[in-house]
């Protein structure tokens, strides 16, 4: 996983979330350019002390939309870094890729109720 270094190690939640959002948007653009959907999202966090931690989340529905990737990455961040340890870099990767023809729609339609 390629990591995106932060300007300086920080425990500021807004700064970390902004870097995470940038990484998810980059991953989403790559998925969409390749016409694939991600089944899993992996977050890798490098702390200021050099320690690295990563977690993977299986998505309920394969996705390529930025917001779905951001939601998954934020859920993983909450498990990895509760907020008090300074973070030096973050990285997001997607796996379990499905071709667009084999995956759910980018923006799933709501199910119609039976009448």
Written description of the protein model:
The protein is of the alpha+beta class. It contains two helices and five strands, in the order βαββαββ. It has helices at about 15-35, 65-80; strands at about 5-10, 35-45, 50-65, 85-95, 100. β2 and β3 form a beta hairpin. α1 packs across α2. The longest helix has 21 residues, at about 15-35. Residues about 110-115 have low confidence and may be disordered.
Number of helices: 2
**Unreliable segments (pLDDT under 50, ≥5 consecutive)?**
109-115
Give the helices and strands as they follow along the chain: EHEEHEE
Shape: elongated
Summed over residues and divided by their number, the pLDDT gives a mean of 88
Any idea what the radius of gyration is?
15 Å
Question: How many distinct beta strands?
Answer: 5
Estimate the helix proportion, in percent.
25-40%
Class of secondary structure makeup: alpha+beta
**What can be said about the biggest beta sheet?**
5 strands, antiparallel
Considering the chains and any ligands shown, give keywords for the structure.
alpha+beta, disordered C terminus, 5-stranded antiparallel β-sheet, elongated, 115 residues, 2 helices
Question: Short summary of the structure?
Answer:
With 115 residues, the chain is an alpha+beta fold. It has helices at 13-33, 66-80; strands at residues 4-10, 36-47, 52-63, 87-95, 98-99. Strands 1, 2, 3, 4 and 5 form a five-stranded antiparallel β-sheet that branches.
What's the topology here?
Elements lengths: L3 E7 L2 H21 L2 E12 L4 E12 L2 H15 L6 E9 L2 E2 L16
Antiparallel strand pairs: 1-4, 2-3, 2-4, 2-5
């Amino acid at each position: 996983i390629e990591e995106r270094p932060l300007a300086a190690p920080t425990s500021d939640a807004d700064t970390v979330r902004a870097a995470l959002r940038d990484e998810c948007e980059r991953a989403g653009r790559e998925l969409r350019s390749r016409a694939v959907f991600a089944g899993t999202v992996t977050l890798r966090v490098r702390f200021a002390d050099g320690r690295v931690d990563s977690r993977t989340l299986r998505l309920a529905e394969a996705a390529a939309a930025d917001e779905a990737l951001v939601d998954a990455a934020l859920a993983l961040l909450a498990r990895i870094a509760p907020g008090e340890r300074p973070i030096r870099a973050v990285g997001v990767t997607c796996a379990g890729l499905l071709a667009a023809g084999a995956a759910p729609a980018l923006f799933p339609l709501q199910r119609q109720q039976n009448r």
